[in-house]
Amino acid sequence: AAPDSKIELKLLDLSSLQDVERFATEFNNEGRAIDILVNNAGIRTPTYQTTVDGFESQIGTNHLGHFALTGRLMPSLNKSTAPRVVSLGSLRAHKAPSDILVNGAARTRATAHLIDIDFVKSKEKFSGDDCYAESKLANLIFMRELGKRCPRITSTAAHPGGCDTKMVGDDLKSAFLKKMALQSPAFGAWPILRAASDPLAPTGSYFGPQYGFKGAYPYVAWFPKLAKDEEYATAYWNASVTATNVKY
Fold first, then answer.
1. Considering only Cβ atoms within 10 Å of each terminal Cβ, which end of the chain, N or C, has fewer?
2. Tens digits of residue pLDDT in 208-217
3. What is the pTM of this model?
4. Distance of alpha carbon 190 from alpha carbon 184, whole angstroms
């Protein structure tokens, strides 16, 4: 606990790369160090929407927004003696589709999602769940790559399991199923807190609830196979740099 802590609120629209740049510039100009950055924001939508920059809204907000924010906050992170960045994954990351079709031709997802921003319009049926899963896979890829490319930063990740929030809870109409399958947001925060504060957690650590979907104590979580693919991760990172124009 930190009873003497002061809470300060600042507005940021992660779906706008211009607003991310504005926010980061203003914060960096304050001259303060960032010891822990938790990239916790995220959206989930069943309908096709785009960010102001033209990206599918979930990949644009959940991944590209955090990618740009972290990169632009590097001056403040580098002021810390032991900076740490926490990325938010999800069990849904394991459900990310292995490939997609763009205008009838197979393309790597990194290229399709981040370079060809109109790829969704060429699909017969948009899948909000697929794009959300893709954005959460991207968060885990980012976490691992950040630790390799910026060794001064301890880069960790966590997922909350199944939490009874508006993002997940509305999928289950039965109160009994909610009670059996979901846990409270407070319990869902525990893995995030461990990823942010465990002094023994090295770069690359990934935590989740004890029993995967729920459970009080945060345990080591399993990575999706694609999140550990080195070649794919490099392609994804390079595509993210191109999409955001942010270099680390």
1. N
2. 986 665 666 8
3. 0.86
4. 11
